[in-house]
């Protein structure tokens, strides 16, 4: 029987005693359709001699089995392309296939993850540890040995799958094996001596976690960092050369930052890695005030070299993307050759495409397989060509759901309710209703101005709830209710302006509660009432475009404010302008005396 796995795990194919597959039968298999290539060279049945020419049942059974092996091997190739597994790791025999299937299911992935987490959590229980979490030496050493034995079992399965020659050529696996060997010896020593000692190699336990399937993104980032180190080191050496030249030719003003080689390297690294150079103000401003030529340090020392580093990282990203794309295309080509027939080598039929998806995504239903085939077949022919098959990874990830041909959310309601909601829908979409609400907003704004001019004592927060507040809030609440019922909650909240109206109305209601129950800490909510006036600017297209842009940029502006907040020691966004504009602007800001320039900021920016 077939084992049901998740979508990203190939279906493990096992055969009954009669040799028939437990998957969906291929009764409509044409006896003339023979695979272009026989996959599953690791299968023992394929090595058997061909049956007699008159034995039709045996021929059908053999052809069916060959196609099942092709489907499975094509699915493995596609998964190797998706996971960026090298093709020399492809299983080559029956033992390698069994180990591959075992090492590519979620039970194995969870075993890897749990073992790595157990090794990391043991650091909380080993000496030195807090008394509440400390375990005995025998206990934590035994747990460590158990976890390491599980890792040995995982590596043995990978060796069975890859083979010894391929296993020792895999760099990450060999690093993991070396770390495992060292920690295995240390765990045995601790268990024999019954005494804990300083173990620096415990810091390498994170390698077991990084090697897990679920940490693939972490591995990719680490790999990119290590690949980027050589050009980055070259840039630092070039920068060190410029620093030596400037140190010989220049004059040392800020001696406490560059008095030693160690401090120079640390502050140089700060200058390089600080965005917008806010933290480098104590180094730049005094030098710019002494000599206008010192401003050249900005393009020479930082911007140009940072541009080189960015260009290097960008080139690595492009090469990696190209490598991944070509690897996927190669995997698709391997799978394509296994799915075409000798009689029709121009494309893949739906029957064989469906057989592929039964192994590649076992949980995909028949309707989704058919829709995937139609979406992939852009040429509208019975066969999927290689050009269309190149889009396999993009199309197979699509999610399909039935779309009902409904215009409104209330179409399925009884006729009486349908007529009521239909009338509300027509009302809220009419221009009369919209301009009526604009008029109410304008009247509300004028009323707020009148109330503000009539205030006595300058106290905007009145102890009594004004009746106008209740009237206008009631009108806004009725508008909100009509739009929600007429358009539907999903369609109503999908519009940014409707979401803005909902938020302002909600805050106005909270402000009414604050006034009614005399909640002084929440009186600031009442100030948000005039925000309803922004709806009037929506009438003109130019204002509408400006406000839409502002709302789009507001999240980024918010996070920029979090990164660069005002502080008592300085205001980075205000001090940034004089430095980038030129030294002549610095004197206008009161930086003429370099002895007091950025005194507090210099102590806090460079450590």
Automatic annotation (TrEMBL):
Instruction: Outline the extent of the Ion transport domain.
Output: 110-275, 431-563
Spell out the protein name for this chain. Answer: Two pore segment channel 1
Give the record's keywords alphabetically: Membrane, Transmembrane, Transmembrane helix
- Cell cycle keyword on record: no
Q: Where is this region: Disordered?
A: 14-39
Record's Gene Ontology CC terms?
endosome membrane; lysosomal membrane
What organism does the record attribute this protein to?
Strix occidentalis caurina (northern spotted owl)
Primary location group: membrane
